[in-house]
Amino acid sequence: MDMKEMRQRSRVLVAKIGLDGHNRGAQVVANGLREAGMEVIYTGIRQTPSSVAKAAIQEDVDVIGISSMVGAHLPVIKKLMKELEALNALDIPVILGGIIPEEDYGPLREAGVSRIFPPGAAVKEIVQYIESIVKAKDWNPEVPGSLTGKNPDALHLSGSRCTQCGQVYFPSRKNCPQCLNDRSIEPVPLSDTGTLQAFAVANVAPPGFSVPHAQGYIDLAHEGPRIFSLLTDYEDPVRLQIGCEMSLKIVKLGRDKENRLTVGYRFRPLKKER
Fold this sequence. Notes:
- With 274 residues, this protein is α/β, with parallel strands linked by helices.
- The chain has helices at 3-9, 24-35, 49-58, 73-86, 105-111, 123-136; strands at residues 11-17, 39-47, 63-68, 94-98, 113-117, 139-141, 147-149, 155-162, 168-169, 185-189, 193-202, 213-220, 226-230, 245-255, 261-269.
- The protein has 2 domains: 3-137, 3-Layer(aba) Sandwich (Rossmann fold), CATH 3.40.50; 140-269, no CATH class.
- The strands form 3 sheets. Strands 6-15-14-11-12-13 form a 6-stranded mixed β-sheet, with no helix packed on it.
- Helix 2 crosses helix 6 (123-136) and helix 3 (49-58) packs across helix 4.
């Protein structure tokens, strides 16, 4: 993979949180990232930690860039990290730029900031750092929008909810087909457990699938949606039972042509079948 290809995939959200209206620096950086070939989502001024976290997930960004010029950076970052944690999205690196006193660097890093860029930092330096982050992410979900987490060993299901009608979707999506609205969707973490509602046993399958194997529909706990999944870790598929409790299992499926690990989800019985 050459640098040009990597830049085409890099997606960066640039935002200013709170009442800080000084946006010239953020705009300069956003324009510089675009010139470097990155996709930039610039949310503008007076955002909230919640709106930034939700936008980052909806836009499937690789990095969140926060600009701060008025000294409120530490409480802002702490609130943003809480919002990301609530959405199981702490895997999205957060970088910070602006007028940041050096004595705040340590607390900001402890809060979760990946890198701090002081005034006068070259856009080229920012570009190189973001490219290194994108290159370091060595996994992709089998189903786009289905998983989120720091690494393949700590992933969770990810969905979206329409704030207008309340419908929850999996995998996550950017609009609600019920309301025909693309502004009412927000990301939502989903449960890793559920109840088996229906299943079928396949005795014929394409290459790469064992036979017989089971697939079914699971109602996720905590009013989650009904999702389809391959089933695993059972002794005999014909002995699975409707209503049995199921739990998420993350599976590693091999590497793609760019040597990135493909990661999928399966569900397995919480208890041994009768």
